[in-house]
TrEMBL record, chain A:
Localization (cell): Mitochondrion
One GO term describing the cellular component: mitochondrial inner membrane
Species in which this protein is naturally found: Pygocentrus nattereri (Red-bellied piranha)
Predominant localisation class: mitochondrion
One Gene Ontology term from the biological process aspect of the record: ubiquinone biosynthetic process
Subunit description: Homodimer. Heterodimer; two heterodimers of COQ7:COQ9 come together on the same side of the lipid pseudo-bilayer and form a curved tetramer with a hydrophobic surface suitable for membrane interaction. These two tetramers assemble into a soluble octamer with a pseudo-bilayer of lipids captured within. Interacts with COQ7; this interaction allows ubiquinone (CoQ) isoprene intermediates presentation to COQ7 and facilitates the COQ7-mediated hydroxylase step.
Protein name per UniProt: Ubiquinone biosynthesis protein
Length: 309, 337
């Protein structure tokens, strides 16, 4: 009988708690909290206690409580928040570790499995990546873009502080594209495979996003603040330059990719020339139009049509 | 406090009536047969009330198909079911699912995408379907890798030869599968199949209970349980054992019958299950009751989302599920991170 009353009280209190929590928190948090309370209740009622997952001893602690680690609940989760990491961070770590196996295995799930093993995880955790090798390539591209942005921001700071000279636009573009392409050098043998993965239909949205942010960042740090059509034309031009230079680099066998940089110089010069030519054509066009107008007025004067009576 | 007292008074009053009502309902269901499974919902609430009241008393009850049996008995009755179906298990699988169960198991392997060198624990593996497929898959992947490696080494430069001196014999590792089942008859049938298929290495057969696995912690890379977890008395315990024996980063995969979402398909499926399958069981295997239990236990198993929550509660991460054949079967997958 006493056990009966105790169990009833426990059930009622849990239900009460549950309803209070449900009114204040969104459904996703409720799930996590409910799990926490469920565990506490189990321990309290002296049933066979379920063991909590033992923290892995030989690598970092992981977040156990929250199945949706991207909500703000993560920050309130307690004292050891800095030691815990989300699933996304763990995935990023696995992919970064997998990069060193790419020259050996190519851009494949085997490389991811090998990377996971270096972190002390079983190779089966490579199954976490639904997109497989595509995830690895996209992670690498994103990482390179972030690195490039940091480098450009640093140089921008130095220019602001007056420690460095401001480059001309053409030189700046050349420097930025070269820096970015040099990040591919360690993986240049397998880069064609990576490019083909990026072109798969289900990867195209992501890869286009990475490419456009890359080009946008480069132009931003080059000083472009335009708000008219030239915003689009500039980015389109740089996208073309970047893609063609990448293709040249993949089949370049000269020492230190000299021919690639020569190609890059030529392409940038072409674009700059074309911009200048466009301006000239516009100016010339205006001048020609004005000349024609003048000729027409003179003709009218001569023939006396313009005479005011 | 008074509320508690009135509750207990009501409980005490209804306590005596419950066993009688349960017997009545069981008789009712026996009379009407399985044709209106939904009519047993009241039965289910009675059972849960009964369980709540007698928490401290001995023998909680659980479901065995649409029956209610004490928990201790369920394992024994499941054992008897599988002991009697073991010889005709594979034939019946093909007959009941029209061979589609092979596609389901192939999908499980494809989703797993195992690399060579992994250790698999095939729980409730019985006749070894998943383990055979696992070994075949990893072996063909391994052969592909060896071939690729050989092709790449056709004309090695002197640097590559020099670099390769220390690392001789560094081939991709062999993968191993352990089939664990509580039922010796099923394992016997499985061993005979392995012999006829000519699979000799990389396979072990172990008798064990999914709720209490006879293995140390952190042993296996992949844990699978195909069409077995609905027969386990305490599913949460089985999930916790799975978590225990998996290595960090290991993967839990469960292939099981689940809820069909499409109402039209659901009606066809119900009709097929309750009309055809026990009849097939009687004709081919001479055992109506076992296959009656089979289709009833499918209906008693929680649906996809509920099971996903149970897996998450056991401590797995990145729990996802995939429906096959419109929800007739679902593959749940989680990671021990």
């Amino acid at each position: 009988m006493a056990a009966l009353i105790r169990s009833l009280r426990a059930v009622r209190s849990l239900r009460g708690l549950g309803s209070v929590v449900a009114t204040t928190c969104p459904a996703s948090l409720y799930g996590g909290l409910r799990r926490g309370f469920h565990r506490a209740a189990l321990l309290a009622s002296d049933s066979k206690s379920d063991q909590t997952v033992p923290p892995p001893s030989h690598h970092e602690h992981y977040q156990h409580e929250d199945p949706w680690p991207n909500t703000s609940y993560q920050d309130q989760s307690g004292e050891q928040a800095e030691d815990y990491e989300t699933e996304d961070q763990l995935q990023a770590r696995i992919l970064t570790a997998a990069l060193e196996f790419v020259p050996q295995h190519g851009w494949t799930v085997e490389a991811i499995a090998a990377g996971a093993e270096t972190l002390g995880l079983s190779a089966a955790s490579a199954g976490m990546f639904d997109n497989g090798a595509g995830d690895l390539v996209l992670h690498f591209v994103g990482q390179c873009n972030v690195q490039l942005t940091e480098i450009l921001a640093e140089e921008h700071n130095q220019v602001q502080l007056g420690q460095a000279e401001k480059k001309k636009t053409a030189d700046f573009l050349r420097h930025a594209v070269e820096t970015r392409l040099r990040m591919l050098v360690p993986y240049i043998d397998t880069w064609p495979q990576a490019m083909s993965l990026l072109l798969l239909p289900h990867n195209i949205p992501e890869s286009l996003k990475h490419l456009s942010t890359l080009v946008d960042d480069i132009w931003y740090y080059a000083g472009d603040r335009s708000t008219d059509m030239s915003w689009y034309t500039r980015r389109a031009a740089l996208t073309g330059i970047y893609n063609t230079t990448e293709l040249v680099m993949v089949q370049d066998s000269s020492p230190d990719f000299e021919e690639t940089w020569v190609f890059l110089d030529n392409r940038i010069r072409d674009v700059v020339n074309m911009a200048n030519t466009a301006k000239q054509v516009q100016a010339t066009g205006e001048a020609v139009v004005q000349g024609l107008m003048g000729a027409a007025v003179t003709l009218k004067n001569i023939t006396g049509v313009n005479q005011r009576r | 406090m008074t509320l508690g007292l009135t509750l207990t008074a009501n409980m005490a009053a209804s306590f005596k009536e419950l066993p009688r009502r349960i017997v009545q309902i069981r008789n009712r269901s026996a009379r009407f047969g399985p044709r209106n499974p939904l009519g047993n919902s009241t039965f289910r609430t009675e059972v849960s009330a009964y369980r709540c009241c007698s928490g401290a008393a001995a023998g909680r009850s659980t479901h065995f198909g649409f029956e209610s049996v004490p928990e201790g008995e369920k394992a024994e009755r499941v054992y008897k079911v599988f002991e009697s179906v073991a010889q005709k298990y594979d034939v019946m699988n093909d007959a009941m699912s029209l061979g589609i169960h092979r596609l389901w198991k192939d999908s499980l392997l494809r989703l797993m995408n195992p690399q060579p060198g992994l250790k698999l624990l095939d729980t409730a593996g019985g006749t070894g379907d998943i383990s055979f497929r696992f070994l075949e898959y990893t072996r063909s992947v391994r052969e592909g890798q060896l071939r690729h490696r050989a092709r790449a080494n056709q004309t090695p430069s002197w640097q590559e030869i020099a670099a390769g001196y220390g690392s001789e014999g560094e081939e991709p590792a062999e993968s191993r599968a352990v089939v664990c089942d509580i039922n010796k008859e099923m394992l016997k049938v499985g061993k005979e199949r392995a012999e006829t298929a000519g699979i000799t290495t990389g396979l072990s057969w172990v008798v064990g209970d999914a709720e209490e696995l006879p293995f140390n912690d952190d042993q296996f890379d992949v844990y699978t349980i195909a069409f077995g977890i609905r027969n386990v008395t305490h599913i949460e315990q089985a999930l916790q054992e799975a978590l225990r024996v998996l290595k960090p980063g290991g993967r839990f995969m469960c292939l099981e019958f689940s809820k069909v979402s499409n109402p039209l398909l659901s009606r066809l499926y119900d009709a097929y299950s309750f009309q055809m399958i026990p009849v097939l069981g009687e004709v081919i295997a001479g055992d109506w009751k076992s296959y009656q239990y089979l289709v009833e236990s499918i209906r008693r198993f929680p649906d996809q989302e509920t099971f996903k929550e149970m897996i998450e509660e056991a401590g797995f991460f990145r729990v996802q599920y995939v429906n096959l054949t419109g929800g007739v079967v679902a593959i749940h997958s989680g990671f021990k991170l």
